[in-house]
């Protein structure tokens, strides 16, 4: 936990001091960082494999029940795009704004926002997607929504 955080901070500071961009593809993080990344990946994978029902009475395999949803741009967006895939939303180039660094996913309760996040967490942990991100910290929409600012 804390020792890994120190390594991450040191790594970022070194990159900033040398003027290297943090998003370069040929970075070699320290072995302590990679060790933490592996632990985090294993933990995220274990947490993301199963969906719990709201009552917490049963667990379902995410792989067994997940279906690709139809993701769309907001109605007020002038650009016309067909259905979007996960890479369109979280890829390195924004769909509407190529320099965008934030994605807002909205929808009614129960529409699948947390399930989508959980799927992204699992794909990262398995090394299938989002590999441009060295670390990924999972959260649920419900938990985020319950936090007081």
TrEMBL record:
<dbReference type="Pfam" id="PF05729">
    <property type="entry name" value="NACHT"/>
</dbReference>
<dbReference type="InterPro" id="IPR027417">
    <property type="entry name" value="P-loop_NTPase"/>
</dbReference>
<feature type="domain" description="NACHT">
    <location>
        <begin position="101"/>
        <end position="149"/>
    </location>
</feature>
<protein>
    <submittedName>
        <fullName>Nucleotide-binding oligomerization domain-containing protein 2</fullName>
    </submittedName>
</protein>
<keyword id="KW-0433">Leucine-rich repeat</keyword>
<dbReference type="InterPro" id="IPR007111">
    <property type="entry name" value="NACHT_NTPase"/>
</dbReference>
<dbReference type="InterPro" id="IPR051261">
    <property type="entry name" value="NLR"/>
</dbReference>
<keyword id="KW-0677">Repeat</keyword>
């Amino acid at each position: 936990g804390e020792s890994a955080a120190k390594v991450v901070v040191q790594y970022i500071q070194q990159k900033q001091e040398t003027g290297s961009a943090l998003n370069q593809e040929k970075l070699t993080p320290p072995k302590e960082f990679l060790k933490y990344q592996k632990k985090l990946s294993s933990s995220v994978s274990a947490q993301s494999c199963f969906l719990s029902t709201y009552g917490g009475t049963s667990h379902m395999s995410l792989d067994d029940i997940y279906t690709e949803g139809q993701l769309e741009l907001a109605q007020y967006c002038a650009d016309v795009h067909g259905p979007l895939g996960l890479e369109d939303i979280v890829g390195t180039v924004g769909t509407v704004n190529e320099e965008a660094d934030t994605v807002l996913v909205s929808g009614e309760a129960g529409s699948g926002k947390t399930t989508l996040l959980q799927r992204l967490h699992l794909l990262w942990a398995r090394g299938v997607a989002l590999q441009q991100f060295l670390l990924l910290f999972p959260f649920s929409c419900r938990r985020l929504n319950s936090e007081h600012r």
